[in-house]
# Entry
Amino acid sequence: MTITITAFERSPDRGRGLARDMRVRWALEEVGQPYDVRLLSFKAMKEPAHLALHPFGQIPTYEEGDLALFESGAIVFHIAERHPGLLPDDANARARAITWMFAALNTVEPPIFDRDLATILERDQPWYEQRLRTLDDSIRNRLGSLSRRLGDAEWLDGAFSAGDLLMVTVLRRSQRAGMLAEFPNLAAYVARGEARPAYKRAFDAQLAVFTAAST
# Structure
């Protein structure tokens, strides 16, 4: 059965590959699984048909036969478990890769995402500058710890895994604030992820949606 995922009809990231369907597209490209994409307007995301798939009215979702999933991390984990290429065979290495998946989404991403929201929603508030400084300090602390752990390694724990896939997508969000450039090994790590053929295919597919919507 063909996999179907959902994505923005008009992505707010303007084709930069930051929307969370990018993670799912990349994972499917890495494991060589074909998929269809159902594009949704913001209005459609809040309608009953989509809320039945995603109770919070967001994207992406994943449908395959009678299975429906939401949350990008859970979807990537499902793909990685069902198809070879994103999780190691060794049990301990597999557990470490899964740990990095959680670290990317639960430890590194929250302050980065909060900063993005603050620049959109809180710019006119009197506390904005202090809020930004607090978030920047939190992001730098997270990036510093990650940088020290990565060191000169190519990937987080041996071969490329779903942990790297999620971490790279999270770190790309910090590029807009210029903080990633402060950690050259992390910048190089992200560049290695972006150079993977599967990433390029996923990025081009997402960009094509934005390009079509803009014409």
Observations:
- Strands lie at 3-8, 35-40, 61-64, 67-70.
- The two ends are 32 Å apart (CA to CA).
- The chain has two domains: 3-85+198-214, 91-196.
- The mean pLDDT is 94.
